[in-house]
Amino acid sequence: MSSVLVLYGTGEGQTQKIAERIAATIGERGHETNALNVADRPDASTLDEYDAVIVGASIHVGKHQDEVRNFVAANRDALAEMPNAFFQVSLSSADEEKREEAAGYVESFVTETGWHPDRIGQFGGALRFSEYGFLKRLMMKRIAKDLLTEGGEPNGDVEFTDWDAVDAFAADVAAFVEGRLGVAPDTTEYSGA
């Protein structure tokens, strides 16, 4: 089996939640996985410990996290030498009318970092109204007005992530890694934890 790093940057926790789901889904195929926040300051030597890497970032005010962008730009050659993937989390990805905008964020990331991922996934994020102050709540309601149900105020947090799409992305990446490294999935060792 192979070892897969899921490296992510998160603003409000949804990207972490998605990264952990991707790691768990790939782990179900018998691969060793680790989800690691880029804020924990991994360096290039961290990549040497893994056979494949998946990088995830969220969009805030039209930009990915600086830490993710800087890590990828500094390590793009090492990333290119192993099976890799990128996933993006944004409200734009949850809105059919804004999917082109979301794709533009990915294109900008590729241009800025010089890294061309083998696989790319885009997922809707979440709104954490329970954690926002008054002004941020008002601003986020205005930004996400098309995504929120008509005629009412959200009573709590709202999640726009399509978990079936996350699982399908993880399975696709796992199959790609298996094919590139010449390993087969092994579900007999998975404990379900």
SSE map:
Elements: E1 3-8, H1 14-27, E2 32-37, H2 44-47, E3 52-60, E4 63-64, H3 66-74, H4 76-80, E5 84-90, H5 99-113, E6 119-124, E7 126-127, H6 134-143, E8 158-159, H7 163-181
Parallel strand pairs: 1-2, 1-3, 3-5, 5-6
Antiparallel strand pairs: 3-4, 7-8
Helix pairs in contact: 1-7
Can you describe this structure?
The chain is 39% helix and 21% strand. With 193 residues, the protein is of the alpha/beta class. The strands form two sheets. Strands 1, 2, 3, 4, 5 and 6 form a six-stranded mixed β-sheet that branches. A two-stranded antiparallel sheet has the order 7-8. The model has no long low-confidence stretch (mean pLDDT 86).
Biggest beta sheet attributes: 6 strands, mixed
**If you average the pLDDT, what whole number results?**
86
Using the CA coordinates, give the radius of gyration.
17 Å
* Multimerization status: single chain
Short description:
The chain is α/β, with parallel strands linked by helices and 193 residues long. It has helices at residues 14-27, 44-47, 66-74, 76-80, 99-113, 134-143, 163-181, and strands at 3-8, 32-37, 52-60, 63-64, 84-90, 119-124, 126-127, 158-159. The protein folds into two domains: 3-125 and 161-181, 3-Layer(aba) Sandwich (Rossmann fold), CATH 3.40.50.360; 127-159, no CATH class.
